[in-house]
Amino acid sequence: MNDRHPTPPTSERRLFTRVSSWPEARFLGAVLRTETVGGGLLLLGAVLALIWANSPWADSYATLGGWVPWPGGKALHLDLDLATWAADGLLAVFFFVVGLELKREFVAGELRDPRRAALPVVAAMCGMLMPALFYIGIMLVSGTDGLRGWAIPVATDIAFALAVLAVIGSHLPQGLRAFLLTLAVVDDLLAIVVIAIFYTADFSFLPLLAALLPIGAFALLVQRRKTWWWALLPLAVTTWTLVHASGVHATIAGVLLGFTVPVLGGGAGPGLAEHLEHRWRPVSAGVAVPVFAFFAAGVSLRGTDLGGLLTDPVVLGIAVGLVFGKAVGVFGSTWLMARFTRAELDRELSWSDLFGVACLAGIGFTVSLLIGELAFGAGTAAEDKVKTGVLTGSLVAATVASILLVRRNAVYRRIDEQDRRDDNQDGVPDVYQQRPAAPN
């Protein structure tokens, strides 16, 4: 470590401190690069759905989503159409990867230290509470019967948010990216809890109890580092089937299975969680989430009063919750913590950086659309309103955040260009050896 720039003592509590080591920064960078590709594919699936749903062949899009490939599976609750398979089946892979990420964060990541975890946890909680309050307020003022959708704007889409940050924030401080990733992971965990508690219908206890058997067998194998696909896959499918039959949303099965995987390796190498995440992330980012987006984002605007649709209370509640609720919740809670506790913003960051990321957290897509389906039902009159609200709010949030962060990225780019003029013999960027004050 450069003696001219000593690291602050561990007793000094600062918010958003830089990622602690170069290997951890490389790991985070690899995750962000993957999410960039996944976010692009997610956007592609949504754009294709919008084009097809508003084309002369819109009926074929609806027919494809409503096709039931296995009509004889009613006894096992498997007589599902393609759109439902995408939401209940493929998204289970996405939530399995989320479960692995959550486990890693709690065991070996930012959330393992309660003091470091306090900020993103509080920011995530307030970043979910405020959008819900904005939505509920608009429903009450308008007198619209749409309160069941209060949770639609509470979720941040990891793939979209990290993809936007990776594209526009090539020179932003790594600690800011780590904060967004941790906040999004906590956000996903809380969204999972919301789905399990508030959007579970026709609950049946026995199938859920029976699901503990394949989960236990899966846990036993992974704890012993046995990665036999011919054993783990049938156990995972059995778990999914039983959880689905219980009435709990089937994606919860993916989270439960992800939690069973050990994070720490027996030796110096990475743990099994990182290995499985490396294997399944391409399936999640490249197949599961884009296919879900394709079936979920196809809102038809043909013959629609666009002005009336955009001013509908449900659409407004979702969009305002994502754009304003997220920014107020994340930024406001962080400012209050810095104001009324001894914690301080790290010298390498400014409040402008934080506000840009708070706006970026308003990008809601995957989980928001899923909650919308659970709240109002697929094929209902409110479905297009939910999709319009989510797409509009996410687009506005992404645009505002991009404008703010592009400006900040230009400032940090000039600093990095100056750093690259210095000799760097050890292969570790100078930015990880010193802690310059944040530019205004």
Give structural attributes.
1% strand, 67% helix, 440 residues, disordered N terminus, mainly alpha, Na(+)/H(+) antiporter NhaA, sodium transport, Na+/H+ antiporter like fold
Present the secondary structure layout.
Layout: E1 14-15, H1 22-53, H2 58-66, H3 82-108, H4 114-142, H5 158-168, H6 174-198, H7 205-223, H8 229-246, H9 251-259, H10 272-296, H11 306-310, H12 313-340, E2 344-345, H13 351-360, H14 366-376, H15 383-420
Main sheet: which strands, in order across? 1-2
Shape, per Cα inertia axes? globular
| Assigned CATH class | Mainly Alpha
**Count the helices. How many?**
15
CATH level 4 superfamily: Na+/H+ antiporter like domain
Biggest sheet, open or closed, and with what strands and sense? 2 strands, parallel
Radius of gyration: 22 Å
Helicity range of the residues?
A: 55-70%
SSE class: mainly alpha
User: CA-to-CA gap between the ends?
Assistant: 26 Å
| Percent of residues in beta strands | under 5%
Stretches where pLDDT is under 50 for at least 5 consecutive residues are 1-12
**Order of helical and strand elements:** EHHHHHHHHHHHHEHHH
Total beta strand runs: 2
Tally the structural domains: 1
- Looking at the overall shape, the CATH architecture is Up-down Bundle
The overall average pLDDT, rounded, is 81
Structural summary, described in words:
With 440 residues, this protein is an all-alpha fold. It has 15 helices and two strands. Strands 1-2 form a two-stranded parallel ribbon. The longest helix has 38 residues, at 383-420. It is globular, with a radius of gyration of 22 Å. It starts with 13 loop residues before the first strand and ends in a 20-residue tail after the last helix. Belongs to the NhaA Na(+)/H(+) (TC 2.A.33) antiporter family. Keywords: Antiport, Cell membrane, Ion transport, Membrane, Sodium, Sodium transport, Transmembrane, Transmembrane helix, Transport.
